[in-house]
Amino acid sequence: MVCWTFALADTSGRVDAETAAKDHGLSFHWFPVQKTFIFEKAKDTVRFAIDMPFATYKGKSIELSKAPVMENGHILIVAADIAKILGKQQAKAEAKVPEAKAPDKPAQNVAKSKNETAGTREVRTIVIDPGHGGKDPGAQGKKANEKDIVLAVAKLLRTELEKEGFNVKLTREKDVFIELGERANLANKWDGDLFVSLHCNAIDANAERKKIIHGYHFYVLRAPESEEDKAIARRENKVATLYGEKNAKEELSPLEWFKLEARLEKYKQNSYMFTEELLKSFDGGKIVKQANGVGGAGFMVLVGAMMPAVLIELGFISNLEDEAYMMTAKGQQDLAERVAKAVTNYKAAVHSYRETLGR
Ligand SMILES: [Zn+2]
Predict the structure, then answer these.
(1) Tell me: the pLDDT tens digits for 230-282?
(2) 359 C-alpha vs ligand 1 centroid, how far in Å?
(3) CA-CA to 251 of 20 to 30 Å: which in 219, 222, 231, 322?
(4) How many CA atoms lie within 13 A of 331 on its CB side?
(5) DSSP for 239-301?
(6) In angstroms, what is the span from residue 198 Cα to ligand 1's centroid?
C-alpha cells in the first residue's frame, strides 16, 4: 500500500489510515491476523480494529464516529476521528509534567495493590498449572501421557520453590480434569504473582519428522505471529472443545484480542522477563531449545490470568528422546530445578527493578 499523495477524504469523511498516520508523523502497523492496526509515536500507541467503532489508548476506549473498514486493500478511517484521538494524545503529553512532580502516595495498608506499575509486582505466590488431567490425557507419546509428566514435574517444582520460600499453589494435585478457564480463576483467587502452565509439545507427523522436531519452548499470550505458534495453541486449546467446556473454542476472535490488549500490555513485560530467565536456566540441559525458544499465541489457559503468565512446553512427547527424558525421575527433577531457578532469578530481577524505582 503505497500512496504518495496527502490523504484525501471520501464522501463519508474517511481517509486512508496509513497515509493519514504518515501525514501526522506517526508510524503505522497493520496486523492482518487480528485485523487490527496501530498508530505509534514515541511508544504511545493507539490501537484500532476493523469494524469496531472504538480505539484503545492507554487501556481506555475512545469512541469513533464510524468503525474503520477495509476497502480494496485500504483501511479507511474517519478523518475527524483521527483528529479527536491525536487531540487526546496531545492533552496526555501535556498533563505528564505535573503528574511526574506529584509526591508519591503513602504506602497503602493492603497486602498488595493491584494497580502497581507494570513490572513492580512482588513475586510471592507462584501458581503452577499442570496441563490437562483426568479424561484429557493431553498429547500422547509412545509410552507416556502429557498429563502425567507435567503433574510429576509440577510437584517437584513445588518442592523446589517452597525451599526458596515461595508460596506455591497447584491447579491440580492429582489426575483430575479441570477446565481451562477454571485454572486461571484459581490463580486469581489465590492472588498469584506468576502463573506457570506446564505442558509437553507434540506434532502429528511421520516418524522421520517426529525424530527431527524436539526441544523446549516458552509461550506468552500474544496474538500469534506464525502458523506454527497458532497450531500449537490450537492443540493446547483443543481440550476445551473436545471435552465440552462452556464457551469452548480453539481460537480467539479479533474482537477478543482487541479486548485483551490493554490487559496483556500490563503483564507483558514481566511475562517476557520470566521467559528470559527460563531461556537462561534451560540452556545446557538434555532437552535442547526448539527454534528461538520463545513464542506467543492464543492459549486459552492464559487468557483469564490477571498476572504475568507463561506456558512452558518442556519438550516434545512425540520425540522419543525428549519423551524418555521427561519420563525419568532424573529428567523430571532436572526440569523442575530449571524452572525453579528461573522463578528465583525472575524474582530477583523484579526486586532489583523495584529498587531502581525506589519502592
Ligand atoms: Zn498441553
Answers:
(1) 888 888 888 766 766 666 677 777 777 777 777 777 888 899 999 999 999 99
(2) 38
(3) 322
(4) 15
(5) HHHHTT-TT--SS--HHHHHHHHHHHHHHHHHHHHHHHHHHHHHTTSSSPEEEEEEEEE--HH
(6) 7
